[in-house]
Amino acid sequence: DAGASDDAAVQGTSNDAAVSRESAASLGYISDPYIRHFVKHPQRRAPLINRGTHSRFEGVQRILRQFISKANSDSERNNGQVVVLGAGVDTSYLLLRQQEFDVGMYFEIDFAEVTAKKAATIFRRTANLRSMLPEDTQIAAGGTEIHSSTYNLLAGDLREFESHVVPKLFARGLDCNKPTLFLSECVLIYLDSLQSDQILDWITRNISNAGILTYEQILPDDRFGRMMIENLRNRGLELRGLHAYPTLQSTSQRFLTRGWHRAAAIDLATYHEHFVQKSELARLAKIEFLDEWEEFILLAQHYAFTFAYTSDTYPFNSMDLKKI
Ligand code: SAM
Questions:
Q1: What residue owns the CA closest to ligand 1's atom 12?
Q2: Domain that holds residue 198
Q3: Is ipTM > 0.95 here?
Q4: The model scores a pTM over 0.80
Q5: Which of 71, 223, 280, 324 has the most CB atoms less than 10 A away?
């Protein structure tokens, strides 16, 4: 049926993201020793893709680390919670543990088809990843989930957030009173905007101190945007949420009109130019020569970070996107 094959195509995007990340990691753009375990068929991506992966990775890791350091430096330790929506085979949790961050509660959600593969890889003996997880870690839900006192990989459909995903989060210890960071990289855009709005509204209704970072496509209507959409459509992928929030302004406005306290958005081109340090750019230039600058900028203008939070007391500081 069409619904199931659409779902399979969307689930397949976790592999695309992983292949790009593995490419950037193996060339030295980013430091991620774990991603290779999740990629069966590595491919070397073009220099402009690797450059984009670097900025995307750096932006997300920066917010994640700032949140965790800040939330956990407040009066109570282990105070922060992270919820990754559509986590795919994202390795951020392993990276945080490797760098000895005091992570607190960490939840990852994806379709069971994706979480089952992730769980199998983590438990594969040769990958040696199991030792990175808390001691009380167990495989659960017929191999589709990982449970522990702090890290939980959960199977669920984000289109049924309140009825299917939320009960699982609560069962594994989500605490509505803790400062919480939601992360969503190239995920909500695959949902109808009504469905993703339901997730955002659930957050504002239930979690008093919440923040969210999304990283998604924007600008569907120019030449490059139409090409981007067409390429995905040819692979059975539809960016359902894109036309509802097509610009930097509308993606941040979306949060403000839905009761979030502050929101700001920047595109990846701006991030690359103003947030990546000059010394880092010099390091990248030595890894691979990038002669398709115009193409890179065009591509990077079509991806945006949007950061929003619900309360003045949100534990967050300097990387305020565009001085939030
Ligand atoms: N965030 C990961 C990353 O950046 O590496 C994965 C990104 S991948 C492009 C999109 C992910 O969202 C896929 O793993 C897919 O299965 C997941 N996803 C999309 N729609 C979903 C839904 N309705 N419920 C659960 N997961 C979903």
A1: 86
A2: 2-309
A3: yes
A4: yes
A5: 71
